[in-house]
Every structure is written in C-alpha cells, then in structure tokens.
Amino acid sequence: MSQALRRYSVSLVVVALIAMAGISLSRVYNGLLLLELVVGAAAASVAISTLLRRVPAAVVAALSVLALAGYALLAISVSAKAGGIGGDLRSLAFDAARNAVPRLLTALIPVEAQPDTVLAPVVLAWLAGFAGTELGLRGRRPALALLPPTLLYVGALVLVGPNAGVVGWEPLVFAAVAAFGLVAGGATSGARSVPRLPGRERAALQLRTASGLAIGLAAVLAVVVVAAPLVGRAVRHNPTDPRRYVAPPNLDVLDQNPLIRLSGWAANPEQPLFNVAVLKSGRPLTSQPSAAPTPSGDAPAGDSPAPSDGPQVVDASAGAYDTRLRLAILTDWDGVTWHVDADYRNAGRVLPAVARAPGLGAPDPDAPAPLEIEERITVDQLEGRLMPAVSEPSRVDGVRVAFDQASGTLLRTDPLAPGLSYTVTSENPNVNVTLLPAADVPSGDAVSRYLAVGDAVPADLSHLAEQVATGAPGPYYKALALETFFKEHYRFAGDAPSGHAYPNLRFFLFEPPYAGGQKGTSEQFATAFATLARLMGLPSRVVVGFRTPSGGGTIHGADAVAWPEVLFTDVGWVAFNPLPDGGTPPRPLEDQFLPKPSPPSSPPASVDPPKPPTASVAPHINAAAPNAGTGPGAGVIAGGIGGGMVLLVVLLIGVIAFLRFLRRRSQLSRGSPPQRVLGAWDEVLDSLLLAGSPAPPHLAAAEVAVHAGEVAQTVPTRRHTRRPRPAAPPLTELAEKVNAVGFAGGASAPDEVAAFGARAQALEYERALRAGRPWWRRLVWRIDPRPLFRRR
C-alpha cells in the first residue's frame, strides 16, 4: 500500500460512501443532477478537512460552514437553471431553505432536481463528509468515520422506500468500500501506533492486520450470501414510504367543485379564459369521430359530431383519442354535490405515469402507441389553481405544478394569473373501441366509490334507470341507451339554473318543458348521466374541461363543458356525450319513463355546494397560497427547518466534544513522561481559559502558578448546595516540573511517577475550578471550543 493511499484512504472512502448514498437517492430523481451535486458536496467538504487537517479544528469548522453556504447557493442556482425556474437567487434560496424538507417528502416520483428538492441532500452530504473526515483524520478513528456516511445512506434508503426497485449490488458495494476503509485505516493506525518498529516488522504488522480484516470481511460476506435469500423470502412487506405520513390540506373553495362554475361560463360565452397553441401532435387526427358499432348504427359513444367536440379517432380499428382539455375529474357523489377527491403532490417537469384504472389489465403490446400532444397554454381570465391539460400529461414546463397521479389532473402552487404561460406534453392513450360491445364492468372495493349514489336516492330516478336499461344486452349498450335517451328527449340551454343535487336532477329530468324542465347545461346532462349510470351498476365519473378548436386558439366561456365517463374492464374510461345535436327538437318523455307521483311545479333552489369535499394538495401548495389556512403546511415547514437546525447543532456539538476529548487525552495520556508533564500544564492553561481568567502569555511557569492560585481563591462559592467545593491544589510543584522539562535534562527529566503526579494535580485543579462555576458554565465546560484555538 503506497504512502499516499495510506494517508488519504479515509478521505477517499468517505467520498465513495456518500456517493453511494447519492446513487441510491438518485433512483427516485429525474436525471443525474442530484447525484452530481451530492458527489460535489462530498468531495468539497472532504477536501477542505483533508487539506487543513493540521489547522485547528474550530477554524476548519468555520471555513467548512462558509464553503457549505457558497456551495448551497451554487447548487440552488444550477438546479434552478436546469429546472427552468425563474427568480433571483435570494428568493430562490429563501424558498428552498423554507420548503426543502416538506417538498422533498411530498414530491412525486420521479422527483425533479429543483432548488427545494436538492438543498437538503446537498447539505446533509456536506455535513457527512465533514464529520467523517474529522473523525477519521483528526480523531484517527477510521471506524467512526464511516458512521456519518452510513447514516446518510440509510436515510436515502428510507426516503426511497418502495418507490424504486430492489438493487442488490448497491449494499454489497457499500459494504465492500466500508471494509476497505476499515482495512486501510486500521493498517495506517497500526503503523502509527508503533513508529519505532523497523520497516520489515512494521510491514509484517500491517500485513497481519490487513489479513485479519480481510478474513473477517470474507466471513461476513459469506454469511450475507447464504442468509440474504432466506431473509429476503421471510420479508413479505414493502418498505414504508415516509410520504404517506404527511397529511395534505384541502383544496381551495373555487376548485372544490368546478361544476358550479359552468353556469357562470355559460352566462358569459364570450369571456376569454385562455389560449391554446398546438406545438406538436404525434399522429394526424381525422375530422370525424368514429367508434364501435352501435345497435342501431346511429351516433357512436363519443361526443357530438362537431369536429372539435369529442374523442378524436385516429383509426377505427385501433382506437379513439380524446383531445379535449381536462380541468378536473369528479369521482365522489353523495346526493348533494359531485366533488374532487384528489391527492395533489409536488411534481417536477417530468410527471409520473397516471395510475391504471381498476379492472384494466396489462398493457397490450400490439396496441398503437399513445398520441403525443404538446400544447402551449396561456392564461387569460381563467381563475383558480386547476390547470387545463389533455388527459395523462407527462411533462410540464414553465410553471411549478402539483399532480394527482390517480386522475392525471394538474394544480398550480399559486393561483392562476393573466399572462401565465406553460407547455404541457400529454401521452393520450387510445381506447380500443372494438372491445366495447362485449366489455364488462369491474366490481369490488376498488370501484365502490364510482358506484356510490348517496343515502337517499329518489325512487323515480331508480325507476328511470331501470326503464332505460331494459333490453340492453350488456354494460356498453346500457351506457349507449342512456346516451341516446338524453340526446332524444332533452334540450341544451345555456341559461339554465345551476345545480345537480337530487332535487335539481328530478326537476331537470321530469318537469315539463313549459315549466322549465327537461333542459339544462352540460352540468345537468353529465351529472344526470353519471347518476343514472351508477344506478344501472355502471362505474362512472364526471369530467369538467374545455372543447379545443382545431389547431388551437382562444378558449371562451362557451367552450367549457362537462361530460361523463364509464369504466369498462380491459378498456378503461370511455367518454360519452349525452348533449343533443341541436338540430332536432326533443321528443316528449314516454309514459314508461315518467314517475308515478306528479313532479314538482317549480324548480327547487340550487343546493350546491355546501358540503366540503375530501380533496387534498401537498403541504407546500397550501403554504404558497396566500389565503390558505388549513393543513399542516406551516407546521411541516417549521418542523422541517427546526429539525434540520437541531440536527446541525447536535452534530457540531458532538464534533466539538469529541475533539475536546481527543485533545485532553493527548495532553494527559500520550507521549513520554516529559511530554505528559507539558500536557498536564496545557490542561491547567485550558482550565484557566474556560474559567474566564487566561494566563497572560508573558508570564513564566512559576508566575502562572501564582496566577492560578489567585484565580482559584476568587472563585465564588456555589449556592443552594450542601456539598463543599473541592479545594484547588497549589501548582508550584507542577511549575517546577515544567521548568525541569524546558531547562534541565538527563537525570533531571521527569519520570513516570512525576508524570502521573502532574496529571493528578492538573485534574484536581480543573475539578476545583469547574466546581465553582455557575451551573450553565459547568454544563458547557466540556463542549466549549475555546481550548481548541489556544496554541499549545
């Protein structure tokens, strides 16, 4: 082993172990930027402590903290530029420091390397490198030097949790590198402990030490190889994801139920909401939709024949694509209101795949590739925080977003504002319409929420659902019959009153046209379809979104629309369009569809909303919203900052205490008897410094002994205690031994007995001086860093 390798082996091992922690953590990040920043932090912190190993520890700690601040600003700047985040460095740094912990715990996988998601790993990697190098080089404890990187590696594994696959080579490499550090550090320590051995004997000692450690390592690896499969088969649970313990707050009121906004948009049809520019479309779109064959050969289960309204089909034999913009998906229905039940989590530019619907099997390898659509959206007068996008977005540029992986909808961390522009790329999956006629619907607990209809279902709605479904041979034909029923018997009216509770639906479905019934907006059509579908046993939900003009353009209030979707086994969610074509007058309701009791004569008042929905966003979203008052956003932020500060303070105190311990032991227990006498004298000088009365540097040893006696006599007596303060011993004899070391030699040099007596005098004086201090001075006596600065 070369001299350079022995000298810097601990430093290299610490950097390698921290790099392994970065590799493990980067598996849940997008790209390699986090790994590069973590390795840079490890290398920089270790290099500072290695190059300045002969400088006092307190000076190195201060310089390392300053360098950490500079490197953290560099990491924030680089990650902000890579993530496309604007703003000045000061605001970015403040936001990252405030939200680093909560956003890291709530970020979706893959995590985007942004200032708030890289700051915590970079800071922890730097601290681990500093602590490991100080313990290994200055403290000469190679085993303890491995502790900080190991804790960082374990923390990375916990944070990754079940969000990445099992990688067997990482822990084996980590263990091998750690074992090399123990071997190299042990050999170096063994060589330094016997410096007077001849070269051949010292080499033999190093060989025996390395051989013993290698044999032990081989035995441990053998046990791991044999026991790992057995232990792996015994563990039947996935690791715990710490993200599930972070409780998100509620949505803003404006976004709880977007259905109630449709009537306002319909009343202002010319209101410009936002602009859409189609940048890229992966497949050419036809102007006419097509779908599976229907019983009568009439309109398919898409939207109306208008080219801009409905699922755009590339190939009738391949599948249908829906290019409308989605704003929100409403899944929960309690008889009073439909509402969003989403878990919005902080996301980067690259979004995770949307969760597969219940009852949807494995992807068909022969199915055509999804249609990739890239659009540039510029907000005009659209309010709230929900962001329109084509279904299943995969990437968002230009704005920080939160993402609900279950529905594939987007939410902005701040309210939308005029001029806001972002680019969204979507992978719009195809619907294999050829499977629809024979498709069934899923069942079980996974779809129970899509079948809930509330506690008090009106009997006439159940009767209507039964009559419409009569004669339909399967689930798809039931949904198709329901779509045809609405198209033939009801009329679209943009000025219809808002509301979709059961009384509103009864009025819409059964009240005669002359009394204002049987007409409504897409709110009534979509919610009535979804409710009756659930009464037929069809899992359904309601989607609020916008029709998109061909080639893009400005989206107005008249383009806002709601539509229902039905879930089919092995097909997924299929959109239906119950809105009438508009060219044909509606037919009167037949007697079999009418309820037996007479319907009410006047429309009921809308009962939307007041029931709050159960929806959620990530804690940092609530912290960014100016009026958000619910959720633990501020508490999580304060707890994260406080926990980080406490961890940093505890780590610094531990390093200082350990360095003080090493200094004390070096002074009193190491070296020859003359060296230990001088070490005892240094201990006395340290005690005077801690007592607040340091000895002036120009005094001789005898004069310092007199000064020390005067300081011991002026120490105040401790109050409220029955224990007497120990008396300080005179230091005249110790001063004479110090003079003997400095000016005498040969037979006059102190021996082992004199060194032991000097040590006892120094310790007794230190105890007496410390016992007379106030309680808080006694508490910090061992962790006061001032003796580390005093030159010996």
Description:
The chain is α+β, with helices and mostly antiparallel strands and 792 residues long. The chain has 3 domains: 243 residues, no CATH class; 320 residues, no CATH class; 127 residues, no CATH class. Helices cover 46% and strands 12% of the residues. The strands form 7 sheets. It has a 5-stranded antiparallel sheet with strand order 13-16-10-3-20, with no helix packed on it. It is elongated. The protein starts with a helix and ends with a helix. About 9% of the residues have low confidence.
Task: Please name the defining characteristics of this protein.
792 residues; alpha+beta; 3 domains; 5-stranded antiparallel sheet; 23 helices; 22 strands; 12% strand
Condensed summary:
With 792 residues, this protein is an alpha+beta fold.
Instruction: Estimate the strand proportion.
Output: 5-15%
Terminal CA distance: 33 Å
Helical content stands at 40-55%
Structure class: alpha+beta
Low-confidence stretches: 189-195, 284-319, 609-634
Shape: elongated
Overall domain count: 3
Major β-sheet, in short? 5 strands, antiparallel
Give the overall pLDDT as a whole number: 77
Strand arrangement within the widest β-sheet reads: 13-16-10-3-20
Number of helices: 23
Number of strands: 22
- What Rg, in angstroms, do the CA atoms define? 37 Å
SSE blueprint and pairings:
Layout: H1 3-26, E1 29-30, H2 33-51, H3 57-83, H4 89-106, E2 111-112, H5 115-138, H6 142-145, H7 147-160, H8 169-193, H9 199-234, H10 253-256, H11 262-267, E3 272-281, E4 311-315, E5 319-322, E6 325-330, E7 332-333, E8 338-339, E9 345-347, E10 371-379, E11 386-387, E12 389-390, E13 393-397, E14 401-404, E15 409-412, E16 421-428, H12 459-469, H13 475-489, E17 491-492, H14 502-510, E18 519-520, H15 522-535, E19 540-546, E20 552-556, E21 560-568, E22 572-575, H16 619-624, H17 633-669, H18 673-690, H19 701-713, H20 732-743, H21 752-771, H22 775-779, H23 786-789
